[in-house]
Amino acid sequence: MKNIVILISGGGSNMAAIVNAAKREGWADKWGARVAAVISNKADAKGLTWAKEQGIHTEVLDHKQFASREAFDTALTQCIDRFGIPDQPVLVLLAGFMRILTPGFVSHYDGHLVNIHPSLLPAFSGLNTHQRAIDAGCKFAGATVHQVTAELDHGPILAQAVVPVLASDTADTLAARVLTQEHLIYPQAVAQLLQR
Ligand code: GAR
Is 74 exposed, middle or buried (0-12, 13-18, 19+ CB in 10 A)? Predict the structure, then answer.
């Protein structure tokens, strides 16, 4: 069995897309993979409610309770690793987890840590990606699933989706269009990783 832990900070729609794909496509039977836990750094993350309703174990680890980024990431590592299985590293999926990770955290999960970012990386790493794409006059925007390295929003690209930017777009309408594609490419990219 390969355990997946999903980290969220908010709505968790990418998390839900992954959980639903795992069920629909039978990841447990095909690859021995299951979503073992959802962890949030915010107690009020809406995605936690949905995950609980699905019978998935949830945890909250509030970063504000920790004196430093390192202390939080160490506690997060301990929390995640409780869902590990001997000789089977946990696959950690960042799904709208709005935290900058320490190099120690990233190296602990080297090769088993994946993120989705709402831009066509390497363009527009960081925040406010959709407004920045509109301001730059981009005709296309999109999302990227990538393996996480110590540098923010970098790392080997696993999948990308492209959407048009319309003249009438606001950051919100563009974000919504991109998000529908995120829900397709993130589960697909994870399924490809599990098949390796
Ligand atoms: C998604 O658009 C995701 O790409 C983005 O946050 C949103 C989370 O939505 N992630 C980042 O900006 C990470 N830098 P969700 O909670 O509904 O999945």
Answer: middle
pLDDT of residue 85: 85
Domains and CATH numbers, the chain: 2-194 (3.40.50.170)
Residues of the chain with pLDDT under 70: none
Between CA 20 and CA 82 the distance in angstroms is 23
Pick the closest to residue 114 from 87, 133, 96, 88 (CA basis): 96
**Does residue 96's CB lie within 6 angstroms of at least one atom of ligand 1?**
yes
Q: Which phi and psi (to 5°) does residue 44 adopt?
A: -95, 15
Report field, pTM of the whole predicted structure over 0.85: yes
Q: If you take atom 5 of ligand 1, which residue's CA is the nearest one?
A: 96
Which residues are catalytic, by number? 117
